[in-house]
Design a protein that fits this description.
Length: 313
């Protein structure tokens, strides 16, 4: 039961921040026209700072052994998730299929698993380093590929491929692998961490605010589509992942991280990308809200089920 409650608390924490965003914009503490600049601040400034600081402070190549196996496992997981997302998306109505597919494919791969692991195993757990290594290229991958899901026929260009997240990831990796990080003053890393720390709360506030704006438009709530999404994202995805894990029996840290990746709701930046690239932000928000609400029960339940087949010892 402790495992269930710790996981529940981690999911509820992010939902509470989203509710704050809903309230702030409903009371006009945040103007509607401010949502765009706040989104840019969260995605193009705060998040790259967070990624850079985490890599510099947490990634220790000499102590990580075959650290490259975790990013490789992420690539395999991503390929499987894409296949399952593509097949499952045909359950959705044609007009919501691209949002359904993108919301299935791009999971909340860093922030929610990080919160869950810290709640269960403590803030200094080595599992956090494993999570960081597993998701090393995920932010750059998401920011580079997500536009294609929303705008058919979109071709890549420099502004989308060479984005702040990709630059911060590659730059930090080069610095760590060459050992130059010892020359960076501690106050620089501390400053970047503090700026990066606003990225998750700010994104959740933006999501909560955009949900309020979207729900002001009558006739846009698609209950059946949201329920179908929850069935696939919150139930079928984690059960499929658990079945594969039981067959392959990877080490516990890798198995737990993969289980979390399969079980968590969509990434919180997805509605912002839907709006940027002419997708249906309202539909993405509905999928996200439904998945987060269900995740209060499904994620703790899945982690408890996982614990019956895998143990830290």
């Amino acid at each position: 039961m402790d495992l269930f409650l710790a996981t529940f608390q981690a999911v509820a924490t992010l939902m509470a921040i989203g509710c704050l965003g809903f309230w702030l914009i409903s009371r006009h503490f945040i103007a509607e026209h401010a949502m765009g600049p706040l989104s840019a601040l969260a995605i193009d400034v705060a998040l790259p700072c967070l990624i850079f600081a985490n890599i510099i402070s947490s990634f220790k190549p000499a102590n990580s052994g075959a650290w490259w196996l975790l990013p490789l496992a992420w690539a395999v997981f991503t390929a499987g998730a894409f296949a399952l997302s593509f097949i499952s998306s045909f359950l959705a109505a044609p007009e919501t299929r691209r949002e359904f597919r993108a919301s299935l494919f791009y999971q909340n791969g860093i922030f929610l698993p990080l919160t869950i692991i810290a709640q269960i195993f403590g803030p200094d757990s080595t599992l956090l380093v494993g999570l960081f290594l597993f998701t090393l290229m995920y932010p750059a991958f998401f920011f580079t590929t997500a536009p294609v899901f929303f705008k058919a026929g979109m071709s890549f260009n420099r502004s989308r491929i060479v984005n702040p997240v990709l630059i911060s990831t590659l730059f930090a990796m080069v610095i760590k692998l060459t050992g130059v990080d010892v020359l960076i003053p501690a106050f620089i890393i501390s400053s970047l961490k503090q700026v990066g720390a606003i990225s998750v709360p700010l994104l959740m506030i933006i999501v909560g605010g955009s949900i309020f704006l979207d729900f002001q438009q009558p006739g846009r709530i698609r209950v059946l589509e949201a329920l179908k999404f929850v069935l696939v994202k919150n139930v079928i995805f984690p059960l499929a992942a658990l079945g594969v894990l039981i067959l392959l029996r990877p080490p516990y840290p890798m198995a737990l991280i993969i289980m979390l990746q399969a079980a968590v709701p969509p990434v919180t930046a997805l509605p912002v990308f839907a709006e940027r690239y002419q997708g249906d932000r309202g539909m993405v928000n509905q999928f996200m809200v439904a998945s987060f609400l269900a995740a209060l029960i499904t994620v703790p339940a899945v982690i408890m089920l996982f614990g019956r087949f895998f143990s830290p010892g």
